[in-house]
Model the fold of this input.
Amino acid sequence: MEKTTIFPLNKKSQYFIFCIIMIALIIFTFLIAVSLGSVKLGEDSIGKIIINKMTGKEVYAPTWEESAEIIIWTIRIPRTLTAFIVGAGLTLCGILMQVLTKNSLADPYVLGISHGASAGAVSVIMYGYLSFLGGYGTMVGAFAGAMLSIIMSLKIATIRKKLTATQLVLAGIAVSALFGAATNFMIYHSRTGSDKVRTATYWLMGSLSGASWEKLQYVTVAFVICFLLIMLFTKQLDVLLLGDDVASTVGVNTDKLKLSIIIIATLLTGIIVSISGAIGFVGLTIPHITRTIVGTKHKRLVPASLLVGGAFVVIADILSRVLVAPEELPIGVVSAFFGAPFFLYLIRKSNRKLGG
Done:
């Protein structure tokens, strides 16, 4: 990727302004997402409901029906917040994969991690594996599938101890096809028309309809921990882009750093996929677009990209609810409409490495 940026956001104040604009956009889209639906409430009523629920008191006397309050607080708000965390988390995973491979075409979806996580989660859904873990069984299954898929992709793409960009993309396509076939086999082999089949099929295309406060809590905790860990060694990520030899020369333990990146990215991808299904191209497009605006320094790139990625998925979720209303379009379909053309654009570019 090129080091040049669209806007000269080199000063801290300019970068701060960009982040403020993104935060304002997120708040705006949040209000739209929460107010959108068959039950309509004004932004002032939504704010009052949130304040009452957060304080546990009737700070504001209800002027709305109780059913409307339940819909807003138990369905729409956790769904919108989950959309933001999912977008930010997938973006973070995309950044890590692009640093690891030094390839702008890398992301959890393209490299097969999302498909591996999907296969692991579907196996739990369809056959009840890890049922003793309750709701966490799907998450564990997704993580196991994600870990297996990234190991396979990296092993296949490594030729004579060298990881090539072309081989990595091809390996990712092959691994995605393999795990996709395994997932389809599990669905086909199960009883036709069962609720599990319908759930797995819709979930594979990406959906936030099952969002809840409980699921939001554990995905948020995982995301915050991963984000804080990454922010501790942003300088090492910058150095790693210069090559393993350069990084080792300045004292970076490249093997340990790469292992940490793989574990963090696969863990976070597995958790996200376990609650939202497979949502493609977010980790591919968002880091690349944000990098052209704020530059390649990860201390600035990571926070800015997470804001953009979170806003993107919230907007995609809004579109998924309005494009074919009153039906709901899988959010993975919406993200693919935007991401697939951008992926083809990146492939056609002659320079595909992060160093530019």
In short: The domain at 12-37+79-348 is CATH 1.10.3470.10 (ABC transporter involved in vitamin B12 uptake, BtuC).
